[in-house]
Amino acid sequence: MMDELDDIAPAFELVEIGGKPLKIIGLSWPVLRTLATASPEVIALMAEKADRAQVIARMGPELLARIAAAAIGRPGDAKAQARLLNLAAGDLVEIIARTLKLTLPRGFDPFVQMAEQIGLGSALAEISSVFSANLQALRQSPAASAENPPAAVSPRASNSSSPGATAP
Asked: Could you tell me the residue ranges of all domains in the chain?
């Protein structure tokens, strides 16, 4: 008899890239935290309130490739990231779009609400403060582009005023 988790986890979609199927999975909590800690724009990309086109322009292709590598089950794999950077831009963005859908199928706000209901408020506070600071920076710089992006807020800087906050 098959374990029930084998039927549901991890959820995946197949996307055709270069005529071949590529399996895309949603990002797990540990992978999401690692990516968000290294680059707070990851959270802004997932939030429904963010201007995703502007966030993608700020992130740059290297971070998109890092997210895509995690989405194909190879987080931190430099060779996979390098190969993903050579994909057509549309293919890389399609991988990211499918990743967002699989990572937070009900959206960012419902994710936050559910997590708070089960007592994960302190874990979300770190992610939320980074997201809020970066969303504010995005809104204040509407002309930001990949050539002239506004400075990202680091997790340490955004958590330094929080009591009990620790550096990642």
From this structure: 4-159
**SS3 category, 81:** helix
pLDDT in tens, 20-70: 999 999 998 889 888 887 777 787 777 766 677 787 777 788 889 999 999
List the single range of 23-27, 41-45, 97-101, 132-136 with lowest mean pLDDT: 132-136
If you write DSSP's letter for every residue of 113-164 in order, what string do you get?
Answer: HHHHHTT-HHHHHHHHHHHHHHHHHHHH-TT--SSSPPPPPPHHHHHTTSTT
CB atoms within 10 A of CB 145: 10
Q: Name the maximum alpha-carbon separation found in the chain.
A: 57
Q: Single out the residue of 62, 71, 74, 66 nearest to residue 98, CA to CA.
A: 71
The answer to whether the predicted template modeling score (pTM) of the entire model surpasses 0.85 is no
Q: How many residues does the chain have?
A: 168
